[in-house]
Design a protein that fits this description.
Helix content: 10-25%
Shape: rod-shaped
Radius of gyration: 38 Å
Number of strands: 9
Strand order of the largest sheet: 6-3-9-1-7
Number of helices: 5
CATH topology of the largest domain: Jelly Rolls
CATH class of the largest domain: Mainly Beta
Distance between the termini: 58 Å
Strand content: 35-45%
Length: 238
């Protein structure tokens, strides 16, 4: 085994030489002072000038996601017989969506008592959006997939299609705008055939006076889809 021995005699001699007279001491002090000032300068620049830039590199950008809204509506009226169930259908295809995302669906069902009989009560109408293979937020707590009316009031149904979409601007982090946009440009949501099941049961006022039969009713369905086109702008960092 070889042991290396450091001879400090040369270094000590050099330091002794540098400090023999006042001029050498002054030069050494000046050199040390410059080194200290250089260190302090770089530390100042880092913590006071470059700190924000350094921290910014480690922070994820935050983006404002905005939505340009549009509507797609259709109306269908049909005469339904007493005790029967009819299926209303709406087909949402890529041509209708036209590069827009499908946000959510409102369905309005309207009817009146039209038998013409005196004091005849309103019929009972029940409606239900049938669960299908359409990609949508079927389990959303805000969904209203079925409803019943026995007083001629309208039935309003609701289906959340694109998750978390409500039309309001979203503020969310993401490495790039493309990454954020990917979350809001899934055009698989909402495409397909929607089925609405409507059942009618008529009611008649009990009377000894002969009246005309109440055995059908006209039901009007309005499909209203809220569509959107997203855009993003950087708003800050997290």
């Amino acid at each position: 085994m070889v042991w290396w021995v450091v001879d400090l005699t040369e270094e000590q001699t050099y330091l002794s030489f540098m400090t023999q007279d006042a001029g050498s001491k002054k030069a050494l002090s000046l050199m040390v002072s410059c080194m200290v000032l250089a260190v302090m300068y770089h530390a100042f620049i880092f913590w006071n000038v470059k700190a924000d830039e350094v921290m910014a590199r480690n922070e994820e950008p935050v983006w404002d996601v905005m939505f340009e809204l549009s509507n797609q509506s259709a109306t269908d009226s049909r005469l339904i017989q007493d005790g029967s169930t009819e299926q209303f259908v709406f087909e949402m295809d890529e041509e209708i969506s036209s590069n827009r995302m499908v946000g959510y669906l409102n369905i309005l069902l309207e009817y009146q008592e039209t038998s013409g009989n005196f004091n005849d009560p309103c019929d009972v109408v029940s409606a239900e959006i049938k669960h299908s293979e359409i990609v949508a937020d079927w389990n959303n707590e805000s969904n209203v997939l079925s409803g019943t009316s026995d007083d001629c009031s309208a039935i309003n149904l609701y289906l959340q299609i694109y998750p978390d979409f409500d039309g309001a601007t979203k503020n969310q982090p993401g490495s790039t705008s493309d990454e954020v946009m990917t979350e809001w440009k899934n055009n698989e949501y909402g495409i397909g055939e929607y089925l609405l099941s409507v059942e009618l049961n008529t009611q008649e006022f009990a009377s000894t006076i002969p009246t005309q039969g109440d055995n059908d009713e006209e039901i009007t369905i309005t499909w209203s889809f809220v569509m959107f086109s997203p855009s993003v702008v950087e708003s800050g960092s997290s």
